[in-house]
Write a structure and sequence with these properties.
The chain has 192 residues and is α+β, with helices and mostly antiparallel strands. It has 2 domains: 1-35, Ubiquitin Ligase Nedd4, Chain: W; 38-191, Nucleoside Triphosphate Pyrophosphohydrolase. Helix content is 15%, strand content 40%. The chain is built from 2 helices and 12 strands; from the N terminus they run βββββββαβββαββ. It has helices at residues 78-90, 149-164, and strands at residues 12-14, 23-25, 32-33, 38-47, 50-56, 65-66, 69-71, 94-105, 110-119, 130-136, 168-175, 183-191. The strands form 2 sheets. Strands 4, 5, 6, 7, 8, 9, 10, 11 and 12 form a 9-stranded mixed beta sheet that branches. A 3-stranded antiparallel beta sheet has the order 1-2-3, with no helix packed on it. A hairpin with a 7-residue loop joins strand 11 (168-175) and strand 12. The chain is elongated, with a radius of gyration of 19 Å. The structure holds zinc ion (ZN). Zinc ion (ZN) binds next to loops. Residues 4, 6-7, 9, 26, 28-29, 31 line the site of zinc ion.
Length: 192
């Protein structure tokens, strides 16, 4: 952030009075520009023993597979955002969504909310931000071409729960160090 969105003057980094960390501050109009984590909402959509994945046409991780997900828009709920992403990325109708897990990614300043539900009629078709879509069983998952380690882990838990006929609510904090495998601090999953 370089310029004030209120008065277009250059910004400085400083700790505002009464605050405890640096912010972007406009010294001309005294606006403090707070930056806070973004919420990403996504969904695991199931149809007849398979789930929907999208091969990403956009960075990060273009060309790799993930579940439909994206930043929340202003004015929508996390659940609405997850359903919208499925529609946008895969022309997919999400039914019976329930919260699957909440994952904090402090290194990216993101909160990831994942829902699970049913893919209506098993219908999907690549949207603008997607190269292709596909339905995958646990055996046919494109493991070498998954976009995000966290999503791989989420899908492992999803299929384990599916096999066991249980529904759990996951809650974890993700620790990521450069070049190191992803680490999760998992809080005890809650049973539905
Ligand atoms: Zn200003």
């Amino acid at each position: 952030m370089k310029y004030c969105s209120e008065c277009a003057k250059p910004l400085v980094r400083m700790i505002p009075e009464g605050d405890d960390r640096e912010r972007y501050v406009c010294e001309y109009c005294n606006t403090v520009h707070y930056q806070n984590p973004k919420v990403v909402a996504g969904c695991i959509l199931h149809h007849q023993g398979k789930i929907l994945l999208c091969r990403r046409a956009i960075e990060p991780r273009s060309g790799y597979w993930s579940i439909p997900a994206g930043y929340l828009e202003n004015g929508e709920s996390a659940l609405q955002g997850a359903a919208r992403e499925a529609l946008e990325e895969a022309h997919a109708c999400a039914c019976d969504l329930r919260l699957f897990g909440v994952f904090a990614l402090p290194h990216l300043s993101q909160l990831y909310m994942v829902y699970s539900g049913e893919l209506r009629d098993g219908y999907c078709k690549a949207g603008d931000e997607t190269l292709e879509v596909g339905l995958f069983s646990p055996d046919t998952l494109p493991r070498q071409a998954m976009a995000f380690q966290l999503v791989e882990k989420i899908l492992q838990d999803y299929w384990a729960d599916h096999a066991a006929g249980r529904q759990r609510l996951y809650h974890a904090d993700v620790i990521s160090e450069p070049q190191a495998p992803l680490q999760l601090i998992e809080h005890e999953p809650a049973q539905y």
